[in-house]
Amino acid sequence: MKGIEDYIITIPDFPEEGVMFRDVTSVLQDEDGFRLAVDLMQKKLEGLEFDVIAGAESRGFFFAAPLAYNLHKPFVPVRKKGKLPRETVSIRYELEYDVAELEIHRDAIKPGQKVVLIDDLIATGGTNEAMIKLVESLGGEVIKAVFLMELAGLHGRERLKGYDVDAVITYPGK
């Protein structure tokens, strides 16, 4: 039986020299790989009491939506600025070489709701930290963040100190 790492294709020196790019699309394009990824992420949530699953645009949607479906939980999309049709709250945050902005519907998270964040990858942790701030600004409580992959060399976990962070597979570099 194949492990999840067998479905992840690594592309050296992309998008720049020295980076080992871990391609999530190779997991999604294989029915067994995709099922295994969702199952392994779901396993990280066993025994956890929570109300809502939130996922980051766009690759977080790939895993958050099927998890929400499997676990019969609402799915809340956290989107790039200008993509949500109703009243939103937003946050600007720094990327490695740029600034980005995420939004969530103002009524997506109710005060006191326990929220699980799902994304494909934790690298520097900036997007995930922004998602936490959005959820908390609405009165929600982030009780866990689950990722398919972690690039430990970029120290994203440190940025999320104090939160329950889990990854299916951890790569030591960046």
TrEMBL record:
Location(s), subcellular: Cytoplasm
Reactions performed catalytically: AMP + diphosphate = 5-phospho-alpha-D-ribose 1-diphosphate + adenine
Pathway assignment: Purine metabolism; AMP biosynthesis via salvage pathway; AMP from adenine: step 1/1
Enzyme class: transferase
GO cellular component, one term: cytoplasm
Entry's EC annotation: 2.4.2.7
Alphabetized GO MF terms: adenine binding; adenine phosphoribosyltransferase activity; AMP binding
Cited SUPFAM superfamilies: PRTase-like
Record domain Phosphoribosyltransferase: where: 28-165
Keywords carried by this UniProt record: Cytoplasm, Glycosyltransferase, Purine salvage, Transferase
GO biological process: adenine salvage; AMP salvage; purine ribonucleoside salvage
Record Pfam families: Pribosyltran (PF00156)
Similarity comment: Belongs to the purine/pyrimidine phosphoribosyltransferase family.
Quaternary structure and interacting proteins, as annotated: Homodimer.
NCBIfam families recorded: apt, PRK02304.1-3, PRK02304.1-5
PANTHER family: ADENINE PHOSPHORIBOSYLTRANSFERASE
Function: Catalyzes a salvage reaction resulting in the formation of AMP, that is energically less costly than de novo synthesis.
Protein name: Adenine phosphoribosyltransferase
Lineage: Bacteria, Bacillati, Bacillota, Clostridia, Eubacteriales
